[in-house]
Amino acid sequence: MVSKRAIPMRKLSMDKRLTTFEEVALGYTEEEALEEAKRCLKCKLMPCSRSCPLNIEIPEFVKCIERREYEKGLNIILRANPFPAITGRVCPQEVLCQKECTLCKLGDPLAIGRLERFLGDYQIENSIMNLDVPEKIRGNIAVVGSGPAGLMGAVELRKLGYEVTIFEALHEVGGVMVYGIPEFRLPRRVLRFYVDYVKKLGVRIEVDVVVGRTYTIDELLKEYDAVLLATGAGTPKFLGIPGEELNGVYSANEFLIRINLMKAYRFPEYDTPIKLGKRVVVIGGGNTAMDVSRIALRLGAEEVIVLYRRTEVEMPARREEIENAKEEGVKFMFLTQPVALIGDEKGWVKKIRCIRMRLGEPDASGRRRPIPIPGSEFEIEVDNVIIAIGAEVNKLIQRTAPNLKVDKKGHVIVDEHGRTSIKRVYAAGDVVTGAATVIEALAAAKRVAHTIHRDLSS
Questions:
Q1: pLDDT-flagged residues of the chain (< 70)
Q2: How many angstroms separate the CA atoms of 357 and 308, rounded?
Q3: Per the domain annotation, does 131 fall within a domain?
Q4: Do the strands 336-343 and 349-362 form a parallel or antiparallel pair, or are they unpaired?
């Protein structure tokens, strides 16, 4: 009889969670992974694999776990996805592979993400790297950006026989995975393992290189056979309401970069400080909003409130991240829309003026549209505000490459294969779609790498 319930994952104890940036989700033990793997029905049609952006053969690797053939199971994943310990942690499996799991008809879906993470952690613990690449060099490719799309594109192109150079604007490699996701959700040791793997494959990485300033696209095309733009979406969005320029107001991007790249939580050991008061309000409902609210508690805020203009049901954040935030003491105010930030005579934010909302008919996102309720305005006293409502693409490259076609938001326009309006220039990931998920960026970059190979081969 198959159990209706998935094996729960252990977490760091609450007495440690608010005093450390250690990883909260602790993963499966071998015994737990074996027990969960037994729940898989081994469906012949593999609906889970079909709904995975990378089409990982999920029942096959789960079967290997059940047989204790861990390296074999790992290699099944690695054929499609070179970064399982990352995707096992941050991929939204609940709306992809697990959503289509046949076990949903009986109870909980198979914990596919946790099993993938189990094999990814096995890979890291045993330093397993497949470094086989062709001896013959087919060409030389420049990849702009070292986030998920950049790293995946580099790996795939290297395996196809190309020399690859990644240009990264920041001083650390990893893009949104290093500056946008906190240590307690994606430990840096995991990211470092995969960056090391990319380097050992023979990919050259240059940091502190801002394409659009250090080099232009035209200059890169003189040196390289093709250019893959994978610059992501790292520019913060704002609400467009009065008072966003006040002191004590952060964008989630700035806040996370100070914490993740500049180690502000270890000031004065590290140079960059971050000032938080007793009550911090976070505006937004995605994973980033959950991340910054949980960080604020770790930095000593006495009260952290998340404001979201819809209800909890419509929140785009992963359920487990909302659960973690609640466990740690984050409070939520739903159906609430900020309309102004109010400061004191010295320019520091002191209040948020809000209005109550109700839900109307679904909008383009498929979620019910929030509608203001007239006369329902109220104010909240605050010490800090963190705006976490998403990110946009940085338009620097677009401004310095006039022949590169973009839409009105600055997203690079590509055909169905990732080709841009400039010959030998391609694009993949968030710079094309806007802010999305790590797994979607990986899948897009993989497809575009093969487009580059076909075009250069022909």
A1: none
A2: 10
A3: no
A4: antiparallel
